[in-house]
Design a protein that fits this description.
By secondary structure, the protein is an alpha+beta fold. It has two helices and nine strands. The protein folds into two domains: about 35 residues; about 100 residues, Beta Barrel (conserved putative lor/sdh protein from methanococcus maripaludis s2 fold). The strands form two sheets. The chain has a five-stranded mixed beta sheet with strand order 4-5-9-1-8, with no helix packed on it. A four-stranded antiparallel beta sheet has the order 2-3-7-6.
Length: about 130
């Protein structure tokens, strides 16, 4: 009878210790599985007020290489289980005028959002990501 009691106590202690270890490392485990992305705000470039005009104004611009690559994602902040988290949200951008290496953004992004420019692994629309830079 004493042996069964000691086995039960040992199993219980091991179980509680492992649960405590998982509790304290859960965030690190979750973050290790997330795609690590680099994000930045789009710049403002000087575009003519209209085609052929000499008068310019600064407007939100997206690099041609980024736009031509296809899909553009921004970092969307959401609260999940009371914790703020970051997700990749696919957006559709409409462009206007073009200058050198940029397109003018006419619709789809305001300029204050962070655009994902690089990732260590693939991700999709509304996948959780970890912004590292």
């Amino acid at each position: 009878m004493k042996m069964k009691m000691w086995v039960l106590v040992a199993v219980t202690v091991l179980f509680l210790a492992s649960m405590a270890a998982l509790t304290f490392t859960a965030r690190d485990i979750r973050e290790a599985r997330l795609p690590k992305v680099t994000a930045k705000r789009l710049t403002r470039e000087s575009f003519p007020l209209r085609e052929g005009s000499n008068i310019t104004s600064k407007r939100v611009a997206i690099p041609k290489a980024m736009f031509d690559a296809g899909e553009v994602y921004i970092v969307a902040n959401r609260t999940v289980n009371g914790e703020p988290r970051e997700f990749a949200q696919k957006i559709h951008i409409e462009t206007g005028l073009e200058i050198e290496d940029y397109y003018e953004v006419t619709r789809g992004i305001m300029g204050h959002e962070f655009v994902i420019i690089d990732s260590d692994r693939p991700f999709g629309d509304w996948d959780e990501v970890l912004v590292v830079g």
